[in-house]
UniProtKB/TrEMBL annotation:
One of its GO terms (cellular component) is cytosol. Gene3D superfamilies: Metal-dependent hydrolases, Urease, subunit C, domain 1. GO terms for molecular function: deaminase activity; metal ion binding. The lineage of its organism: Bacteria, Pseudomonadati, Pseudomonadota, Alphaproteobacteria, Rhodobacterales. It comes from Gemmobacter aquatilis. This is Formiminoglutamate deiminase.
């Protein structure tokens, strides 16, 4: 099946090495840890997105990053489930790419996902500004890496403002109090570490507006359907 899969254009998304019990079960059944087994049996490349990957040995982290695949991280879910901490520092040093997603939908909050990723590295290693570089702040590294990795994982020509790219855009409300006086990288830092997604004023997907005035264009219908489903569930559970 894996051989046939590589003939398809992708992208390919799979959960991988999320929890200790999963790693132990795979190792018992196949004689290898999940990441080692996958790299040995599949031609992993930039078409692949490996979700979570929180339980990796250093050599697995470096080998997987070298394939050009995207790590699909869900920091809020991974914290909620006690999965573990993704080694973003080693992944970054090895040239790895990542995107972020909501997974369990416990919370759907882009800024919080990015903040949680950085804070997990700080808590583990007792440091500050862990993912920042000499030329980019922590917020810029988080946002740009996630935008580019997310676009790659979705198979979209986006993730940057450049000719030929899709117009997948986000606009922040510069009237928000936490953005007052901020410029350059400081805007992203303030949004991710001091603010939340209520600062998001507008979003466009391939040029089509999906958020306007801080509200999803279909919010009313979505909320109505959600409430109806929850009422039905309450009546049968």
């Amino acid at each position: 099946m894996l051989a046939a899969l590589t003939e398809l254009p992708g992208p390919f998304h799979i959960h991988l090495a999320e929890q200790v019990a999963e790693v132990e079960e795979v190792q018992a059944a196949y004689g290898a840890r999940p990441v080692d087994w996958l790299l040995e049996n599949a031609a992993v490349d930039g078409r692949w997105c490996l979700i979570h990957a929180t339980q990796m040995k250093p050599h697995e982290t470096e080998a997987l990053a070298a394939t050009g695949a995207v790590a699909g991280l869900c920091p809020i879910t991974e914290a909620s489930l006690g999965d573990g901490i993704f080694d973003a520092l080693r992944w970054q040093a090895a040239g790895g790419r990542f995107g972020v997603g909501s997974d369990s939908n416990l919370r759907i909050a882009q800024a919080e996902e990015l903040r949680s990723l950085e804070y997990s590295q700080r808590l583990r290693d007792r440091g500050r500004a862990m993912l920042a570089t000499e030329v980019a702040s922590t917020g810029r590294v988080l946002f740009e890496t996630a935008a580019q990795g997310g676009a790659q994982a979705a198979g979209r020509d986006s993730g940057a403002l450049a000719p030929g790219m899709w117009a997948d855009l986000l606009a922040l409300d510069m009237g928000a109090v936490d953005l007052e006086g901020r410029q350059g990288d400081g805007i992203l830092d303030a949004w991710i570490f001091a603010g939340d997604d209520r600062m998001v004023q507008a979003v466009w997907s391939a040029g089509r507006p999906v958020v306007s005035g801080g509200r999803h264009v279909a919010r009313d219908g979505i909320v109505a359907r959600y409430r109806a489903v929850m009422r039905r569930l309450a009546g049968v559970l």
